[in-house]
Write a structure and sequence with these properties.
Length: 333
């Protein structure tokens, strides 16, 4: 099967599984797991922060960050199509009693910072207390320009807001920009990164920030049920992913470019956009096509109406050629 539905579908390689099997472990809730401690140390250093906490998912990582920054009755400002606002089941509001204030995301993935400024609430008992600004990088594969991040940080600082990055795919941003991950992470008080997407680990995210914020996040992780025991077997996969699978993201970006190039040549196909490891394409019948190509061993998301393709480490350049052939066959038929 060629599976282009998401980069979350990748499976741990034999070498990664070996690293998991060999991991030294202990009870991490007691602070006894050396492999988890190593993953937290390595990730914090890579992202230029003082501390880190390993969590089961990106959703929990973002929620721990929201709750570390905000109290009940505070507010966070966030893109209206950002994962943290839209795809995390409203956890900030439900479990953190934190009010979201969405603002539109611009077509290139940035926030309109004038709009952000305009929604920051004055200190007045009518209003929630604006406390935190959240960015997402990459968003739909789009890389935030570093100067946009710096402008957002200046705005946050001028208004007494903390700044969080949902950096589920910030590794892709760093590779696309040709900078070290710590440069992308630099302006933020906290950054959440996923190990289980483009980096190919089976499970896990890491939240990084100051020692104080991460200590608070660690307590929320426990309350949210994310305290894990011999989780060094999972952390070993994360360490393997960080060591071996960051630079190769450039291959995924090249494959996504190859894919839109090939699909764009087919009759009736409209390429809507493409950035880093994602491509967005409109087919005459995206739902029918997804069902038809599955019989040929190609898994793609149903286009409603646009089909999102995501490349990852289990998809080769040859698989991209095969994908284009299978799609061409079904469009012609
Ligand atoms: C996948 C994703 C998350 C959440 O990660 P899970 O591990 O699936 O909970 C957060 N933000 C973005 C941008 C994502 O793509």
């Amino acid at each position: 099967m060629i599976d282009l539905r998401s980069d979350t579908v990748s499976r741990p390689s034999a070498a990664m599984r070996q690293a998991m099997a060999d991991a030294e472990v202990g009870d991490d809730v007691w602070g006894d797991d050396p492999t988890v401690a190593e993953l937290e140390r390595v990730t914090a250093e890579l992202l230029g922060k003082d501390a880190a906490v390993f969590v089961p998912s990106g959703t929990q990582s973002n929620l721990c960050a929201l709750m570390a920054h905000c109290q009940r009755g505070d507010e966070y400002i966030v893109g209206d199509n950002a994962h943290t606002y839209r795809y995390e089941a409203g956890g900030g509001a439900v479990l953190g009693s934190i009010q979201p204030q969405p603002v539109p995301i611009l077509p290139d993935g940035r926030l309109d910072l004038d709009r952000v400024q305009a929604v920051i609430k004055p200190a007045d008992h009518h209003f929630a207390d604006s406390r935190l600004l959240c960015l997402e990088n990459t968003h739909d594969g789009k890389v935030l320009p570093l100067d946009h991040q710096l402008e957002a940080a200046a705005l946050a600082e001028a208004n007494g807001l903390a700044l969080h990055l949902d950096g589920a795919r910030m590794w892709n941003a760093a590779v696309a920009l040709g900078v070290a991950p710590r440069e992308v992470a630099g302006p933020f008080d906290t950054v959440s990164v996923c190990l289980s997407k483009g980096l190919g680990a089976p499970v896990g995210s890491v939240l990084v920030g100051s020692a104080h914020l991460i200590e608070r996040a660690r307590k929320w992780r426990k309350m949210l049920g994310g305290g894990m025991r011999q989780s060094g077997v999972l952390a070993a996969a994360g360490l393997h992913a960080i060591e071996h699978n960051i630079e190769r993201l450039a291959d995924d970006h090249a494959n996504a470019a190859r894919l839109v190039d090939g699909l764009g040549r087919l009759d009736g196909v409209e390429v809507v956009g493409h950035a880093t490891n994602m491509a967005f394409v409109r087919f005459p019948d995206g739902i029918g096509l997804a069902r038809a190509v599955a019989d040929d061993g190609l898994l793609i998301a149903e286009g409603r109406p646009v089909t999102r393709f995501v490349t990852h480490l289990d998809v080769s350049a040859d698989d991209i050629e095969t994908t284009i052939e299978i799609v061409a066959k079904h469009l012609a038929g």
